[in-house]
Structure formats: C-alpha cells, structure tokens
Amino acid sequence: MGNFQIDFGKRDRVVGIDLGTTNSLVAFMDLTGPKVIPDPSGSNLVPSVVAVSPDGAIVAGPEARRMLITHPERTVYSVKRLMGRGLADVGEELKLFPFRIAEGSESVIQLLLGDRKLTPPEVSAHVLRHLKRNAEEFLGEPVTKAVITVPAYFNDAQRQATKDAGRIAGLDVLRLVNEPTAASLAYGLDKRKDGIVAVYDFGGGTFDISILKLHEGIFEVLATNGDTHLGGDDIDNLLLRIALEDIASEWELNAPLDPEGVQRLRRAVIEAKESLSFFPSARIELEYQGHAYRREIDRALLEKLIAPIIDRTLGPCRQCLRDSGLTPEQIDEVVMVGGSTRIPMVRSAVEALFRSHPHTDLNPDEVVALGAAVQAAILSGEVEDKLLLDVTPLSLGIETMGGVVSKLIHRNSTIPASATESFTTAVDGQRNVLIHVLQGERELARDCRSLARFDLKDIDPVPAGMARIEVRFLIDANGILSVTAVDKRTGKETGVEVKPSYGLTDEQVEKMILESFEKAGEDFAARQVLEARVEADNILRATDKAKQNDAWLALSDAERAAIDRAINELLVVYHAEDHRLILQKIESLNAATQKLAETMMNAAVGTALKGTHI
Ligand code: ADP
Ligand code: MG
Q1: Residues near 236 by Cβ (< 8 Å), separated by ≥ 6?
Q2: Cys-Cys with 145: which of 14, 41, 443, 593 at CB 3.0–4.6 Å?
C-alpha cells in the first residue's frame, strides 16, 4: 500500500506578519479575534536583528540582538531600509547606519556578516523564518501562508523584495498590505459606514502618516507622508549623549567608553525612556568595568528634550492633510501606531493637531500585526470578505520623445489599478519601439527610477505617426506592476512582469531558497554537535564525582582501567564535528560505568533504608 493523503477540506491557516524596521511580529485569528503569537523569550516583539554566530550558525530575534553587544561586526539591523534598493539609493543610509556592504554590490546589495554575505531579502527571510517557527510551535501545525505588511510608500522594488523575503523563508505571501490599512482593520474601523482616518505611526527609526478614506467598508489611502529618519532612536540618542557626557566627567576615563559599554548604556537609556511613559521619573543605571553610573531623570526633562522631535512629526502631518485636500476638522478617527506613541506628549500633540481623541486601546507596537491577521483571515475565508483598496505611492509612466515621462498611473491612485494610453512611432517605417517604464514624480526620465525596458518588435512599417501602439499598465492588489504593449494594426503583443532594477531575479530567489535548505542542514548539524558535547560534559562530570565515592574503590583494577580508557576516548572525540562519534563514546563510557553506578545506587538505597529505621 502506498501513502495517500485525505483532503478534509480544512482551510490552510494564514498568519499576519508585521516585518518592522526595529521589531517584527506574527499574529493569527482565533475565535475571539486576532492574537499576537509570543516569542519563546517571553516578548511579543521579535527584534528585526540577524547575526552569524562565531560557529557559523545564523540566528535572528532576541539572540541576535544580544550579539549586537558582543559581536557587532556579525550583526545587522534596520535592514528594512535597504529592501529593494540599489547602492545608488542608499548613500544616506550608509552614512547613518553601520551597514557593511560587500564589494561588487550594485544591482543587489550584499551585506557582510562575519564571513557570510547576505542580501537584504535573505536577512529579512531569517527574521521571517524565526516568526514562522514561533507560529508553528505555538499552533502545533505547519505554517506556509502569510500576509505581510509594508509601509504605504514602499515602491514596486521594495514590495517585490518583501515578497522575495517571504518566499526565501518558505512562506507563500498571499498579500502585501499597507501598514496603515492594517492598523485601521485592527481597530475594526472598516465597520464604519463612512469616515476619514489618520494613521500616525511613530516607531523606532521611521515616522509615517497616512490618511485613509472609508466608504462602505472600503479603504482608500488618500495620501501618505513621513520622515524615514525619525523615531524612538532619535530620543535614545539624545539621552545617550547626556549619559555619555556624565560618564566622561564622573569616571575620569582617559579613553571614550568602548563599544560594548556604549551598547549597554543604550539599553539602559531605552529602559528609562520607556518607563517614563508610565512613571513620572526613571533611573538610568550602568555598572561596567568596575565603575557605576546612576542618574535620575524626570518626565519634565524628557519632554523638554524631545519637544523638537515631536514637532518634526507635525510638518509631514500637515502636508499629508494638504495632499488629501482636508482640514484637521474633517478627520474622524486617529489611530496611533508604533511603540513611540506610548509617550504621553506624543499623544497630546497628535490630539491637538487633529482635534480628535486618538485610538490607543490596542498595543501600538502590535496593531499592524493584528490587522495583518484580520486580512489573513479574510483571505483564508475564515471571515467574510471585505474589499481593501490601497494606493500606489509613486506615479508610473513611460519615456516618450525627448526623454520626457508620460505618466499613466498617478501617485495615490487606488489599487488594483490599470491605465491604457496610445503612442505612435517617430520615424517612417519604424520596426521597433523601446518601452522604458519609469516610476517617480519628476518630468524627465533621467530623474525618475527606471523600472524596466523592453522592445516591441516587428511593428507594421508605416509612415511616422501612423502606427498605433497601445500601452497598458496593470497594478495588482500587492502594488506590483505588469506592462503590456500592443501594435493595434497587427495585434502583436509584448509584455513584461516588471522586475525592478534593484530586485532579485527569479533564479536568484530560487537559489536562495535551495541554499537556505542546505544551510538549514548545516545549522542543524552544528546544533547536534553542541548538544552531544553538553551530554558529554554531564557524563564526564558525573564520572569524576563518582570517582570520589567508596564504590570506586570497590571496583576491580580492570574495571577502573576500562572506565579511564572510556573517559580518554570521549575526550579525544570531544572536539570532533561529528555528533555520532561523540554519542558513541558517551555510550561506551555509560557501559563502562554501569557497575559503578549500580554499586553507588545500592549503597544509596541501603543508607536510605537504614535511615527509615532510625
Ligand atoms: P518599528 O515599527 O520601527 O519596527 P516599533 O513600533 O516596535 O518599531 O517601535 C519601537 C520603538 O518604540 C523603540 O524606539 C522603542 O524604544 C519605542 N517604545 C516602545 N515602548 C515605549 C514606551 N513605553 N515609551 C516610549 N517609547 C517606547
Ligand atoms: Mg512598525
């Protein structure tokens, strides 16, 4: 009889994932609503940090964040900033972040982690794999389908890169959802008949503001704005600078605090900042290399320091209102997203601007993941269908005569979207046209991002201006574009699934998926060796102790020699990278010490029995 599977028609579970710059989360829908799945470390938030440990194993999450202190050169974070971007795009990021880029990176950036090279989607895939594993352990079933959230302003390349990361992690990404849309879903705002929602998202390193319009359960993003370098990290840096100045004068060091000391101080500063959201004062404390630092800080001082930072979020909010053609009074609901919105001063500034009390009932660092789980449940058919509309963040067009861009789909158009436009030839008898697809707001092709180029060949040779070439753009629900061009005289059609200039090819993604399986094998082998060594340590320690026991003296010379031989053989293979060999020698030592163990046990039982008689 062969193997067969019965299909019970059970629906596959789909999880919702918030793949954040600082933290990531996975959530699912149960009977009572969306729930975040906790990390084994105890927190719901998984740091978006990936590290290569000295023995070559890749770790993500809390373990990787610990390595940020001990092995910064083997650790990467904030990789969301590099997703779907080329070297030319990321100059600013490189100035602000200690990314180590491998030489020769151009169309696909490669990051150096110890001796490994990983692209941003591969790094993100390790975070996703960590979340996938958490979900599988929690739910007790395989998890292969997900909805992942992205910032509303993510362009085509950044969206593709996020999908690639999912595929590399073994996840079928059913839908990419805009983060503000997800946050609104988490609050159930789709149940409103009509309304305008502002989503204020102040996280670790980025600030985003989006204005959504709701109508009959349909979401439409009217406009988005923000600052890609503004967040809780800026507050941390302010406090860190003060603490470093204190330490320099109090400890009278002759050199600046070393990187490990600075990282520890940063953690201490963050703890103090976060507790100041709930308590009127907090303490920054550090004990390091025989010195101690302690400083009390109260909320009034914190507010004085951060007022300019909070102010910097209000400009983009006003711009976003202008772009959507609305006044603050027209905003019906304000949703707070991101850990930094726990700061009371942030809440009051937002309330004052929009003149509306913001939603803060859900944890601001969880709402996006919760909304992703709602969307996931919609897609898996667990809850009744809702239509979701998002917008395309940047205009899309093609290059025409003189290097000018003709826009087909304008920015902030709702998606899915399509547009068709007719063009003609410039030269008599022209046989080929080059279609150059561009993304951006500028008028000239050279100022926009080039997404793709393709040829429409064998056009009917007619006088200039007579040909009719129809170009059609289609953006799917994920915001991913495909383009077709048709010669209307011949009906001949060419099309491309637009592969962004800085994306991975399908072959590259395929290769990464395979490699990750191979590497998973390696990682697994390394773990088996470590586990075998732990077991060896235990038995060696136990044998050493037994040698102090009277039972050892009761053994024959030959029995004692056999035990010593087994110990030596285990020590010889201890450092071999072969767990089977180590386990085999553990087995022999076990066998050799069996009589010793029995004698000891009998003696122990003897004393125990005697004890009961007294
Ligand atoms: P991201 O979306 O960028 O991944 P999060 O939404 O998880 O980030 O926000 C992380 C930021 O929120 C960090 O800077 C963290 O210190 C900050 N944060 C978390 N809790 C609090 C709090 N209680 N008070 C102030 N800031 C907080
Ligand atoms: Mg976030």
Answers
A1: 266, 269, 270, 273
A2: 14
